[in-house]
Amino acid sequence: MKDHAECRRLFLATAAIVALAVPVFLGLITAPRLRAQAPAGQSPTTAADRPAFEVASIKVNKSGDQRYGTNIPLTLGPTMSAVGGLMSLTNMPLRNIIGFSYRLSAGQTHYLMPGLPNWVESERFDIEARAGGNPSKDEFRLMVQSLLADRFKLTVHRETRQLRIFAMVLSKPGKTGPQLTPHTDDAMCVADEHSDLLLTPNQGLPPFPCGSIIFPGLRPRCLRSNQGGGGRNLTLDYIAAFLTEFQGLDRPVVNRTGLSGNFDFWMELTPVANSSRPSDTQPDPTGPTVFEALKDQLGLKLESTTGPVDVLAIDHIEEPSPN
Fold first, then answer.
1. Is the peptide bond before 271 cis (omega within 30 degrees of 0)?
2. Is 17 a residue whose pLDDT tops 50?
C-alpha cells in the first residue's frame, strides 16, 4: 500500500510539472489531464451564417504570468462540462484561441497556421463572452470565429503546402502493435472525464472517455516518473495530431498508415528531462522514448520526410478593437 501511494504521488507530481513545462501543447487546460480530438473539417459556413456571442469583453492581460485558464478546455475533443452560454478565458495566448476556433491542436498551430504577426506571440488576453442557451463545443468554436473576425478583423484561408513532416507509418506492413487495436466495444466508453484513471490496473486500457485522448492520465507500470495515457474510438489522424509537437518533435506528424476506422490505444513513455523537475522524480533512463513507445507498443514509426499538408493561412489580423 505504501509503494502504491508513493507511485501515485510521484506520478501526480510529474503530470503536474509536465503540464506546466510544456505549456504550448499540453497547457491548453490547467489540469494535468489533457485531451485532444482528431482534426475534422467543420461544416462550410460563411461569416454571415456563423453564430455569434450576444456580448463579449476583450482585455489585454499585462500580468506577465505564464499560467492561463479557461472554463472550456481549448482542446480538439468534443467533451466539456456544462457551462451554459459563458466562455471565460484568462491570460490566454491568441494563437491558442485561433487554433481552438479552427480545430487545430496547439502543436499544429505552430506549423500549420502561417502568417501570424509577432504581437500574437507576445500578448495575452482575458475574454468573457456569453451566448444564449447551452451551446455545444463546436458551436462555441464558430462563435469564437465570429468574435475573431469582428474584434480582431481576422481573415483566413486554407491551402496546401509542402512541409517537413514526420510521416506516421506502420512499423510492419498491415500490422499494428499490441496496444493499438480496432475499437469494437462502445460499452467500454465512459462519460466521466474526471474519473480517477490513475487507480486503474497497470495492464490494458480501462473504461475510458471515448473520442478523446487523456495524457498523462493512466498509471504506467510504476516505472519511476514515466507517463501513461491513451484513448478510445480514435482515428489515426487524431493520434497524429496529438503527437504533433509532443515530446520535442520538431515538425507536424501526419498520418500515412493507410488505415481507416477507429482505434483504442494506450501507451507509456519517459517524459523529456526537464531541469525544473524535482530530483526525486527524474525520468527513468530505462523507460521508453516516444519513438520506442510508438514502435513497440503501437506498431508505429515516424519517418522524416516532406509532403503536402493542409494549413490555415492567416490573411489579416489586427489588435482588438476597444470594448
1. no
2. no
